[in-house]
Design brief:
Blueprint: H1 2-29, H2 35-57, H3 75-97, H4 114-145, H5 153-169, H6 180-204, H7 208-232, H8 236-245, H9 257-272, E1 285-293, E2 299-308, H10 319-331, E3 346-354
Antiparallel strand pairs: 1-2, 1-3
Length: 355
């Protein structure tokens, strides 16, 4: 009996690791060029893994994981999920709007048209994420953390909080080129959302309210976000004001390669993102320069190298726009702090990236 329980718990731990690894890396290993269809296949893959695990290890007991969608719930369960979801989503987007730099928040919906983005954000993502996290992972963690006193506060809150931590932590993988403050803000908000969803899952023994809450949270974010953009980003002056509030710090010290490269990247993203910089233009493009730096850290020469697409190929579309805009960015670079042992001029590579 002890060996059987140990085997089951071991398999549960392994299954959670497998699901988390697939969530992180499946986008990279699925050989589909279309971002939309890649997300569809990725979701089907994750659902299939959960289905197989429950079938083999739990004898098709989907009700145990809150996945019985025919189960009747109290009349107010869905209403509460809708109201709280809209509230959380609206408050979240208001906070993010004044924290994130426009266009830099995440790569979740990059490469999608508006219809595809809405479908993934409002339908597919809430459905898949709640099944994976609140359905499977939270239930497994509850089973692993269960002890002699299953009514304890730790037994109730432990799985909810640990699952929410995993859920929010995985948001690090979706954020690119943002400051630590911005990243931590997004992760904290995801943590709060995860805890609320976890409480709904535990209270009603079903993921249905959690899915509804997640859906309406995203709806609230989209509608309120659109309203904020209409009000606050309707003129270049308002855009400039919002961007000024969020301007990142740059540390161009060539003695610290990690900080120096991060500053170059942030400078590229922030300084090139003018109000009309990407209107009607292609995205996922990088413009490469060769910068000559003298022993004092002054940039003495800026040489345009090439324009590349998202897969490193040279492109011709809108090349004049990218070249001219990127040259302006490169000319705005300040004087660097040179390496202590620099005895002659050196050449470095600098990219202006359009995402």
């Amino acid at each position: 009996m002890i060996k059987k329980n140990f085997r089951k718990k071991f398999l549960e731990i392994i299954s959670v690791f497998i699901i988390l690894i697939l969530i992180i890396y499946s986008n990279k290993i699925i050989p589909i060029e279309s971002a939309f269809f890649r997300q569809i296949v990725r979701s089907l893959l994750l659902l299939s893994v959960v289905y197989i695990i429950i079938k083999i290890n739990y004898n098709n007991n989907y009700n145990y994981f809150g996945l019985n969608f025919k189960k009747k719930l109290p009349n107010n369960a869905i209403k509460k999920a809708i109201i709280i979801g809209l509230f959380v989503g609206s408050v979240t987007i208001v906070l993010l709007f004044f924290i994130f730099i426009k266009g830099d928040a995440s790569n979740y919906l990059k490469g999608l048209n508006k219809g595809q983005a809405v479908f993934l954000a409002i339908i597919l993502a809430p459905f898949i994420e709640e099944i994976l996290f609140r359905g499977y992972i939270q239930t497994v963690l509850k089973n692993l953390l269960s002890g002699n006193n299953n009514k304890s506060a730790f037994h109730y809150w432990g799985p909810i909080i640990f699952t929410a931590i995993l859920f929010s932590g995985l948001h690090f993988t979706a954020l690119r080129n943002v400051s630590l403050r911005q990243t931590l803000s997004a992760v904290l908000l995801a943590l709060i959302m995860g805890i609320i969803s976890g409480v709904f899952r535990e209270k009603y023994h079903s993921v249905k309210p959690s899915i509804v809450l997640h859906i309406f949270s995203n709806i609230g974010s989209m509608f309120v976000g659109g309203f904020l953009i209409l009000i606050f980003l309707s003129t270049p002056e308002r855009i400039a004001f919002i961007r000024k509030m969020n301007k990142p710090e740059y540390h161009f010290d060539m003695n610290d390669s990690a900080t120096f490269n991060k500053s170059l990247c942030n400078f590229s993203i922030y300084e090139k993102n003018r109000p009309d910089s990407l209107m009607g233009k292609e995205r996922n493009v990088s413009v490469r320069f060769l910068l000559t730096v003298d022993t004092s850290g002054m940039i003495t020469d800026i040489k345009f190298d090439r324009i590349m697409g998202s897969v490193g190929k040279k492109i011709i579309v809108n090349s004049d726009f990218y070249k001219n805009n990127a040259i302006t960015v490169a000319r705005e670079l300040p004087q660097f702090i040179p390496p202590k042992n620099l005895k002659k001029d050196t050449t470095i590579v600098f990219y202006v990236c359009y995402h």
